[in-house]
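Changelog-linked ticket: pyridoxal-5'-phosphate example.
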Amino acid sequence: MIKINENYLKLEASYLFSNIAKKVAAFQETNPEKDIIRLGIGDVTRALPDACTHAFHTAIDEMSSDAGFRGYGPEQGYDFLRQAIAKNDFQARGADISADEIFVSDGAKCDSGNIQELFTTDAKIAIPDPVYPVYLDTNVMAGRTGNFEDGRYEGIIYLDATKENNYIPTLPDETPDLIYLCFPNNPTGATISKEGLKTWVDYAREHKALILFDAAYEAFIRDESLPKSIYEVEGAKEVAIEFRSFSKNAGFTGTRCAYTVVPRECAAFDAQGGKQLLHPLWNRRHCTKFNGVSYPVQRAAEAVYSEAGKAQTKNLVAGYLKNADHIASEMKNLGFSFEGGDNSPYIWIEANRDSWEFFDTLLTDAGVVCTPGAGFGKCGEGYIRLSAFNSYENVVEAMKRIKKALA
Ligand code: PLP
């Protein structure tokens, strides 16, 4: 008899965004004339940069001749892209990361979800609350948790990110083996200083733990003093894996390209306490279960690092940050407290009421979709997340409507 992985039955019945989609669809059905503005899901809305589409076209044309055709590429990514990433995203910022430590993939979602395969089932996991749900759900699927009770899974060390700690989790009382961190944060928009990040790196070194650092939103950092990569912190290479993505800086959410950095010296331990390097393990996993990102997509991603690509992606991000500024200033005028928006596309707003109730109010009275904070964890109750991923005109209109609805 074939049996299922019962860990899947522990998962919360419905995924946050499908719940939202259902509510929005039901509202649209009864209000077909209403023009709904979506500031909920974190998908980008603006076109790919010209430099990327140009490189994409050229690469597709190459594929149409036998001489230029490419079949299976290297699973880890083409060297042209890995070199461009290492040079521009790390070496240019003083982080000593080389091309062969970069694994190109089709998404930071898949990588941050799959990475936990490398670790034992009884590894103690520390996860922020509120959180990007992928970290949590993939560990539930793997059997690292008990049941979901009173808004939390048993067996997880939750790292509360609250107003009291400026939405930056403090070191836990119980020692974890694996620590998930995400800065700039989804959903709170909070950022961490180099000193703050060093506290975590030092802690991981002391406790033989490993940090999984999600930097999918690094492009939104305007404050030059903030680290964009964990490898800007001394000692991080031994204890941290970093996830990056072209989704939010260059609009690749549909095109799909991302990468994971596993430094050569990054290690975990075997049952005897012996040091085991993670680079060969992730390489083995990647080559066994993944067959590479398509050549045209990698050429399009490489174009992000051309002079034109750099200017165009900067402009793209600046447009979203202008939206974030507008949302932040309007919410401030309305008297709300919030985090984020300055170095992040997300604004995390204290709703001062139940977060799904506030979601319903904004949907029905303003025709604006937000994301209820409760969907990101227990600490998200009483909050909503507004996203800057929309056109400026829509953001201005949405804020006008919210102002009117809450008046
Ligand atoms: N990491 C975080 C924190 C995210 O918010 C998202 C997407 O919203 C991702 C990763 C997914 O990135 P990708 O599109 O590369 O899968």
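Closing comment: Example verified and attached. The mean pLDDT is 96. Residues 307-333 form the longest helix (27 residues).
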